[in-house]
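Worked problem 6 (solution included).
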Amino acid sequence: MSEEVADTGGGEAVAAEAAPVSFLESLPEDLRNEPSLRTFTDPATLAKSYVNQQRFVGADKIPLPGKSATDDEWREVYTRLGAPTEASAYEFEGDIPLDDGYLDAFRNHALNAGLNGRQANRMMDFVRETISGMNEASAQSAEQAYEAGRQELQQEFGQAFEQRVQMAQMAATQLLGGTEVFDEITLSDGRMLGDHPEIIRMFSNIAGMIGEDNLAGATTELIMTPEEASRQIAEMTRRDGPYFDRMHPEHDTYVAEVLRLREYV
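Solution. The predicted structure is:
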């Protein structure tokens, strides 16, 4: 027979498919070792990179000044990036939490920093959020300080709290001609000056020295504070007094008065 059967014993090389050639191996030999091509794994990725570079070549490029660049050279870059040439050109969206003086200063700083209108608005958003958070924290601190002072005086004055506060206001009005000044001064903790316990306590003591009869609008019947009631109880319950002497004609009167006074303690 003229045809011969192929030897299958050594035919693995014939039957096996050729190993795929990598992207870099498919390039000409002088390009295979090019470092800039090592990041590409397929022709599509290389083509996409080429298109992007071509688009960049056609774009308007802004050269960055060197380390020794002057302010005027940087100003030219900022202007080309959208920064205005005058601080007054900045316009802001929404509520502006700054008064005119601080707003002018903000505009000048934004101009010196080379911010464009969008960047300046972003910074104003930050200022707005910061001030809002500070105001909220300040209001909360003031409320806490006010409540702490009120509780302090309520414990000190007891049932006489409302009356003593009213008398303090009357004394301040009589001496100062009004209490407006106490609503115009804000303390470091956020409270108004007139809400501080020491101020109320001081004018309450002054009211006591003036006397309710000489205090315009004051009630004629004062309510005792716990301290005043305690002092009077101590005086009435002396061991040598009628309170402990059942045979004393005023014993029952003393006992009844002490019971009444204990309601204020």
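Discussion: The mean pLDDT is 84.
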